[in-house]
Amino acid sequence: MKLKEQYAALKTIVIKEVLRFLRIWLQTVVPAAVTMGLYFIIFGNLIGSQLNDVSGIRYMDYIVPGIILMAIINNAYANVVSSFYMSKFAHFVEEMLVSPMPNYLILIGYITGGVARGLVVGSVVTLVAMFFTPLKVYSVGVVISVVLLTATLFSLGGFINAVYAKSFDDISIIPTFVLTPLIYLGGIFYSVDMLPGFWQKVSYINPILYMINAMRYGMLGVSDIDISTAFVIILLFVIVLFAYSLYLLHKGVGLRN
Amino acid sequence: MTLALDISNLSKTYANGAEALKGIDLQVEAGDFFALLGPNGAGKSTAIGIICSLVNKSHGTVKVFGHDIDSDKEAAKSCIGLVPQEFNFNQFEPVIEIVINQAGYYGMPRREASERAEHYVQQLGLWDKRRTMARELSGGMKRRLMIARALVHQPRLLILDEPTAGVDIETRRSMWEFMQETNAQGTTIILTTHYLEEAESLCRNIAIIDRGKMVEHTAMSKLLLMLHVETFILNLREPLQQVPQLQEYKLQLLNETTLSVEINKQQSLNQLFDELTQRNICVLSMRNKTNRLEELFLRITGNEWK
């Protein structure tokens, strides 16, 4: 395919994916706003007002970056896992597989869809957060890069999950039993410095800890982790998962007999 | 001679050990209307899946208009339009979007894709339903939607895997006409169907696959000449109590006013009627017991005929 044709093909997947989640915005955009709003009310306002500052930051402000990123992670993942699995389940993934589109375009198209939903939901949650506390941005560049890289990473995760999934149960197992615990234990509501030594070390093997801290640094200028280490780790995960996803597509795992 | 499809020694063994294809060879000339027949599980859909890159082959080569599906995949894929057996579109998308998206996957800019999609949606009689969600279409409309989608990038080779399954007679006839027009405009068509009447009236050449092997690959006219015996059903005016004794014919009384008779190539119908008339048996009407191709098909795949 020529470059112009590749652009047209990619644009087609992206438009399709964005229209898909916008068409069902009540299921895809609103729930995150409601849930995260409840977090702000309960943890930020009611409980947070009783707590001391963390790393010199008011508790409400401290949890905002993590909550925004949690919404982005969940939605980027959910978008790709459900959309790609549905296309497998109902066989319309074959529309793309019979076309001359290279595998990397299919992958980039789905990732872009996931990132787009992550950004839309992330923006809505940010707006909700602004009802409770003024928005703070310490470094726009760091915030944008963390958001884009994290959304890309979890879109890739959703894609791999969808490739291996054989039933609807399989697309909810990973988010429920892996993703959610990792997010909650990634330091959204606390600083790892508050944990005993052993659990601090355990926390450092959780990749989400690095993302949340990088986001917190971008918004508030504080982090439990060196920011460059966080970026290297996120980037490394993105590269490995991208390469692995391409390999799966090339082999046709879960797609071709 | 340009070959639209050139398959050589194609085999497929699935992970569970099932051998779906056992080294088949198949050549389809450009511009042909070709029937690919076989009983259920014979390997037709596997072969089609491999041609369209939906199934990984175990061995062999496949070339589409000279483009190898391994080394020149994109060019090979660009030549093919597929109408699969099962509905494989997003049931929650409007008809027009499904066709536009398919054009997009082939690299067509949005505006051109919309124009093409509108053209084919109109041609397939779906214009009034273009904004309707695909799940709300009738079975026949869904089949037509898949044909519009397969044609939107104007493929040189159109593969139709049982395109008229489950559609009413009127729709089937209009689909036949459309397929014939498409073929007349230069598109090579490969058709699989269980309606052998459809294959006989539309296709010029035929291949029959059985248990993963190619058991016949010839011109339709030549194949039909191989039919040695035809069975006719005669409807009689007066009821009969017993089978008339005609030495040269194999007769069977299906009920008291219906007679079945087998006639081979050397026998004539005139002689049969003469003998029946001599016995005061009046025939009101006559029909073939089965479609001629169907009879051949059953013999070939049943291994009764050589």
Q: Helical segment tally of chain A?
A: 11
Gyration radius over CA of chain B: 23 Å
CATH topology of the largest domain in chain B: Rossmann fold
Percentage of residues in strands of chain A: under 5%
Which segments of chain B are poorly predicted (pLDDT under 50) over 5 or more consecutive residues?
none
What's the shape of chain A? Answer: globular
Description:
- The complex is a heterodimer of chains A (257) and B (306).
- With 257 residues, chain A is mainly alpha-helical.
- Chain A has one domain (3-251).
- Chain A has 11 helices and no strands.
- Chain A starts with a helix and ends in a 6-residue tail after the last helix.
- The mean pLDDT of chain B is 90.
- Chain B has 10 helices and 14 strands.
- Chain B has helices at 44-51, 73-78, 95-105, 110-123, 139-151, 169-184, 196-202, 220-225, 269-278, 292-301; strands at residues 3-13, 19-29, 33-37, 59-64, 67-68, 80-83, 157-161, 188-192, 205-210, 213-219, 229-236, 250-255, 258-264, 283-288.
- Chain B has 2 domains: 3-225, P-loop containing nucleotide triphosphate hydrolases (Rossmann fold, 3-Layer(aba) Sandwich), CATH 3.40.50; 229-301, Alpha-L RNA-binding motif (Alpha-Beta Plaits).
- Chain B has 306 residues and is of the alpha/beta class.
- In chain B, helix 4 (110-123) packs across helix 5 (139-151).
- The two termini of chain B are 30 Å apart.
- In chain B, the strands form 3 sheets. A 6-stranded mixed sheet of chain B has the order 6-7-8-3-9-10, with helices on both faces. Chain B has a 4-stranded antiparallel sheet with strand order 2-1-4-5.
- Chain B is globular, with a radius of gyration of 23 Å.
- The chains are: A mainly alpha (257), B alpha/beta (306).
- Chains A and B meet through helix 1 and helix 5 of A and helix 2 and helix 3 of B.
